TrEMBL record:
It catalyses: 7-carboxy-7-carbaguanine + NH4(+) + 2 ATP = 7-cyano-7-carbaguanine + 2 AMP + 2 diphosphate + 2 H(+). Belongs to the QueC family. Its cofactor is Zn(2+). Zn(2+) binds at residues 173, 183, 186, 189. It holds the Pfam family QueC. This is 7-cyano-7-deazaguanine synthase. Pathway: Purine metabolism; 7-cyano-7-deazaguanine biosynthesis. SUPFAM superfamilies: Adenine nucleotide alpha hydrolases-like. Binds 1 zinc ion per subunit.
Amino acid sequence: MVSAARAIEQGFAVAALTIDYNQRHRVEIEAARQIAAHIGAVRHIVLPLDLRQFGGSALTDDIDVPKTGVSDDIPVTYVPARNLIFLSLTLGWAEALGARDIFIGVNALDYSGYPDCRPEFIQGFERLADLATKAGDQGEPFTIHAPLQFLGKAEIAAEAARLGLDPGMSWSCYDPTPEGKACGLCDSCRLRKAGFADAGLVDPTVYAA
C-alpha cells in the first residue's frame, strides 16, 4: 500500500497486480482490492496461481504457522522463490503494458530473513529483466523500485500516516482466525504491532491475541 502510494506521489500511474496463490491468509486479497480502488489504480488484476500444488511453506501447506516469536532462522512461512515468481509475472505484464518501472514493497530490515527480500535479489532481478525481455534487448531497461527496502516497520507506519493512508485497509497476518481477526502472534503480526508502537501511532488492526 505504501509502495503504491509512493509511486503515485512520484507521478506514476499504478497498474496493480495481486497474486492469488491460494495462500492461507487469503483475506489479503480483498484488502488489496480495497487499496487498489482507494489509491486510484488504473487497473487491478487478481491473478490465480495455486502454489498449494507445490507446498513447502506454512502459507501454502498443512504446516503450523509459528507463534513463538521472530527468530534468526528463515521461518517455515517462507514460500519457495515467491518474490522471484511474483516479479517474473509482474515483469511480463509490465512489458505487455509498455511500462518500464516496477514497484515492490519488500523490506530488508524488520522482516523474517526471507532471501528474496534482500537488495542483492532486487538488483539481480533488475539485471535479469533486461536479459529476459524484448524491451531490454532493444535498449529499454526496466527499473525495479523497492522504496521500503531500507525502512524499519515504524518508518513504514509513519510513511503511511504522512501519505494520508488508512493502515486499517492493509493486512499483515499469516494466520487469521475464522472470524477474520489477525492472530496477533505470528511473525508478521509481531512486527506490525512493534512498528506502530515504535512509531507512536495507533494500530487499527483487530488482533485475537
